[in-house]
Specification:
Layout lengths: L1 E5 L2 E3 L21 E3 L1 H15 L5 E8 L3 H11 L3 E6 L6 H15 L3 E5 L10 H9 L3 E11 L2 E8 L2 E8 L2 E5 L11 H7 L4 E5 H4 L27 H12 L3
Parallel strand pairs: 1-4, 1-6, 4-5, 5-11, 6-10, 7-10
Antiparallel strand pairs: 2-3, 7-8, 8-9
Helix pairs in contact: 2-5, 3-4
Length: 249
């Protein structure tokens, strides 16, 4: 079985995001970029399935600028077999990404698509669900456990009331949650090997997909600075402030 793992290039989660002075977006100049953490979990799960004998090939795919090839190399260094880069210089939205992934899935014919439940830059949590709908495949979102069983996959997912277990017939789409696994670090030998692994570059025209954004960002603002706290001498003073300043009593 072949597993397709979409990965996204995002601002590293350790970096403090800066808003452009004109409010048109996030300043990406000289900012460290990395693979979306939820997608790292997806790559790790695909690798574990391959190591267990449930899969034979892992293909990582990213949609973005030429620099996204570095993100693909990270996935290859972790252990993926090859990569696909759909090059575009414009921002992409979940529906456009899902349409592009559908076209790639039609070419690659994977038995399973595993991707992060959301990206940390937009937090949309839409691509996996849209992709499953476009493909007409069953989906298991927020997976905390994945087990391949013949021509089906059992997915344990986290819901508000606890855990829910689904049995999906393959091919299927799975989105990963934080508690699914702990991604591995790429070793130096694997980093060197990743440089020789193939990355197939495509364009939207190759797939006959329109990636033009449908949404317009009106303004981006940084959150207001947090007010400093105060120390109170007594419970009575606390009650007074809650009543007069906070208005909660």
């Amino acid at each position: 079985m072949k597993i397709l793992v979409p990965i996204k290039r995002v601002v590293d989660f350790n970096v403090k995001v800066r808003v452009k002075p004109d409010g048109s977006g996030v300043d990406l100049a000289n900012v460290k970029m990395a693979m979306n953490p939820f997608d790292e979990i997806a790559v790790e799960e695909a690798l574990r399935l391959k190591e267990s004998g449930a899969a034979e090939e892992i293909v990582v795919v990213s949609i973005g600028p030429a620099e996204a090839a570095d993100t693909i190399r990270t996935g290859l260094a972790m252990g993926a077999d090859r990569g696909i880069l759909l090059k575009t210089g414009q921002p992409t939205e979940p529906l456009a990404v899902a349409k592009a992934l559908k076209a790639i899935a039609a070419e690659e014919k994977p038995g399973l698509v595993i991707l992060g439940k959301q990206a940390i830059d937009d937090d949309c949590n839409q691509t996996g669900q849209m992709l499953a709908a476009l493909l007409g495949w069953p989906q298991g979102t927020f997976a905390s456990k994945v087990v391949i069983d013949g021509d089906a996959v059992t997915v344990t997912r986290e819901v508000d009331g606890g855990l829910e277990t689904l049995r999906l017939r393959l091919p299927a789409v799975i989105t990963t949650d934080l508690r699914l696994n702990e991604p591995r670090y790429a070793s130096l030998p694997n980093i060197m090997k990743a440089k020789k692994k193939p990355i197939d570059e495509k364009t939207a025209a190759d797939l006959d997909v329109d990636l033009a954004p449908r949404l317009k960002i009106l303004k981006v603002e940084a959150p207001p600075a947090r007010r400093s706290g105060v120390k109170l001498a007594s419970v009575g003073e606390l009650v007074e402030k809650l009543r007069n300043e906070a208005g909660v009593l």
